[in-house]
UniProtKB/TrEMBL annotation:
The keyword Transmembrane applies. It comes from Luedemannella helvata. The lineage of its organism: Bacteria, Bacillati, Actinomycetota, Actinomycetes, Micromonosporales. Keywords: Membrane, Transmembrane, Transmembrane helix. The chain crosses the membrane at residues 23-47, 53-73, 78-98, 175-197. This is DUF3592 domain-containing protein.
Length: 213
């Protein structure tokens, strides 16, 4: 009987990783998401009273960095684009939590009536009058369809330290900002886990980085 030829050893695909290595990189991307969200939240607290452009700008860079990390983990682009949706919740929650929490903790509530309104583009400014007379600080709304009119009565919250802008009391919701932040982080976590699984499979098959799947 002829001896059977010894089968050639399997040659691993270029770029293939062990399952343990893929799990490690996936967990690293998940932790990066939590780190980025935490850093931007802390930055918003530190810069409280300064223009929101600071934490917004840094937050956008961190969200972009997370999308790049997902792209590298996945070896494809569609999940990095998908990470933009939860990134919006992370950005809003991390930026707005600090001022909302400050107003909720130390803010003073006042019942007021709108006595005048001005608009420049999409920036609406409402002059308010309370029991002690006209307030020095207006109510500002940036956007379309503000929903306020002269003569409307509402309750506002003012910061006695003058750091945070006056806000409609009905819209002061730090718990909602925490919820937005956690929702965004949950989306990032699912995205990273899916990217890790798909990326591991792509590397095992020798598939290279592309724009689609």
């Amino acid at each position: 009987m002829r001896p059977q030829p010894t089968p050639a050893p399997a040659v691993p695909m270029a770029g293939a990783r062990s399952a343990g290595t893929s799990v490690g990189w996936t967990l690293l991307v998940v932790l990066l998401g939590f780190l980025f969200a935490g850093l931007n939240t802390v930055l918003a607290y530190v810069t409280l009273g300064l223009p929101n452009a600071i934490p917004i700008g840094v937050g956008l860079v961190l969200c972009l960095a997370f999308a790049v990390a997902v792209r590298l983990l996945h070896r494809a682009a569609w999940l990095s684009w998908l990470s933009i949706l939860p990134a919006l919740f992370v950005l809003v929650g991390s930026v707005q939590l600090a001022p909302e929490a400050a107003l909720d903790r130390r803010g003073v509530r006042q019942d007021v009536v709108i006595v005048d309104a001005k608009a420049v583009g999409k920036r609406h400014s409402y002059t308010l009058s309370g029991p002690q007379g006209q307030l020095t600080e207006p109510l500002i709304y940036a956007g379309s369809n503000p929903g306020y009119q002269v003569g409307d009565r509402l309750t506002v919250v003012t910061d006695p330290e003058g750091v945070v802008e006056l806000e409609d009391a009905a819209k002061v919701d730090p718990a909602g900002m925490v919820g937005a932040l956690l929702f965004g982080l949950s989306g990032w976590t699912v995205t990273a886990l899916l990217a890790g699984w798909r990326g591991h499979a792509r590397r095992q098959r020798g598939r290279h980085d592309d724009l689609v799947i």
